[in-house]
Amino acid sequence: MKKRILAVLLSAVLLLGLAGTAAAAERPFYLVLGDSIAFGSGLSNPREAVYGKVVADTNGYDYANYAVPGHTTANLLKRMENEAVRDAIARADIISISIGGNNFLLGNLNALLFDGIVKQDYQKLDAIAAGFYDDLDTIVTTIRAQNATAAIVLQTLYNPQTGYIGDVYQQGADRLNKALRAFDAAHPGAILIADVGAALTDSDRDFAEDRIHPSAAGNEKIARVVLQTLKDNALGDGTEPVIQTAGKDAHGMGIFTVFVNLYGNFFHILAEIRGFFARFIKI
Predict the structure, then answer these.
(1) Which range marks the domain in which residue 165 is found?
(2) DSSP SS3 for 241
């Protein structure tokens, strides 16, 4: 009799274990790819508090983050050749991507500031946006070759800058966001758009000292936008972020803000000088 009871108890424990394993296996897998925004560079504790982690904690997803600071769309395509990243893409249920800002920030900043502030010529931004569209097409095609069913969530770009440089930055963000929406219109259902750009508008609260990356408050706002996008598409239930570890803003980056603003003021002065002489000679 005792042996029979023991056998029943062991069977029950085994069944509970199997049920727990099955429940764990059913958790959706949420993968984050992209740049320093997706990495959490505005935080001193990005691993625990970046918006991707908040989204995963809120909806009970399994989670991995392969974002790399400084990455452009071209870098992301190269990153997707990595075996670990390929494996993660193949098993993901949701793939969230932040990319594009570095396409016009890295390697083009001097030319863009001169062209944008001094000459008010945005042809280079138009060319960058066209390249962004093409790379986006390749990114989505590459993902679909490895995973035919995962939801792909792409974020719009925000403008963290103010003053003269903020005007040029907005020109770049507008063009890349327009390209993103054009891709969505041309490929219905291929991507979901999380309109982060419309949510992050408070330069004093939403961004870290460097006035580039989201602060802890900014990461929470991004999480809200992504969560709402997922809920609207029946991919999650939560819209109120579950914060397991409070984000801590990164400090010591304020010098970058000073440098950028000085750059903007310098090019504005050049624009004024150019405008003065343009009244007398054709420049």
Answers:
(1) 28-278
(2) coil
Token pair recorded at residue 104: 């016009």
Q: Which ranges of the chain would DSSP assign to H, the alpha helix?
A: 2-25, 36-39, 46-49, 51-59, 73-79, 83-91, 101-105, 109-113, 123-146, 163-186, 196-199, 216-232, 254-278
Has residue 259 been placed in a domain? yes
14 lies in a domain?
no
Instruction: Specify the DSSP class assigned to residue 251.
Output: -
pTM of the predicted protein model: 0.82
List Cα–Cα distances, 34 to 22, 40, 152, 218, in angstroms.
Answer: 31, 11, 12, 17
Count the domains in the chain.
Answer: 1
Contacts of 91 (CB under 8 A, 6+ apart): 29, 147
Task: Give yes or no for a contact between 212 and 256, defined as CB atoms under 8 angstroms apart.
Answer: yes
Q: Could you tell me if 151 and 233 are in contact, meaning their C-beta atoms sit under 8 angstroms apart?
A: yes
Domain-embedded: residue 273? yes
| Residue 56 domain flag | yes
CATH number for the domain harbouring residue 266: 3.40.50.1110
pLDDT of the chain, 283 residues: tens digit per residue: 444 544 444 444 444 454 444 444 589 999 999 999 999 999 999 999 999 999 999 999 999 999 999 999 999 999 999 999 999 999 999 999 999 999 988 777 777 777 877 788 889 999 999 999 999 999 999 999 999 999 999 999 999 988 777 888 899 999 999 999 999 999 999 999 999 999 999 888 999 988 889 999 999 999 999 999 999 999 999 999 999 999 999 987 555 555 555 544 544 454 445 454 444 665 5
